[in-house]
Amino acid sequence: PPPLLCPPPSPHAPATRGAPSSSSALPCFVFSPLQALLLRNGTFIYGPVSAICAQSSAPTDPCPFTFFWKDLHHRSTIFHNAPMPYSVFFNGGDAFHEGSLRVPSAGCVHLTTSAAQTSYNTLNVGDVVAVVR
User: Fold this and answer.
1) Is the pLDDT of residue 23 over 50?
2) Which residues, listed in sequence order, are joined to residue 66 by a DSSP beta bridge?
């Protein structure tokens, strides 16, 4: 089968904070409502792993986006200082981060601790995420 390729980032993605990744083989984190996987040059390098997307009242937008910020010990400024460890932000306030796989978020993608650590350590500002349904 042909390799899976990451789509180009959205032209509506927020401005990148920090230096973009210099790699010519950018990783891509692809997410569907219950799974996430990491690709590089169309090849699986991690996953699929369990994940949960946002609740239906505040869905995770489906589109390719560019990661624009990372924060190892992030705490929500909107949801009562809730912890969001290993956050990698891709769409305004949306991020991949460690969180409950039983409780949907308000736009973020929850991952297990291990998956959140791997995404945080692998992904860089300027890399692409494809949110698919």
Assistant:
1) no
2) 128
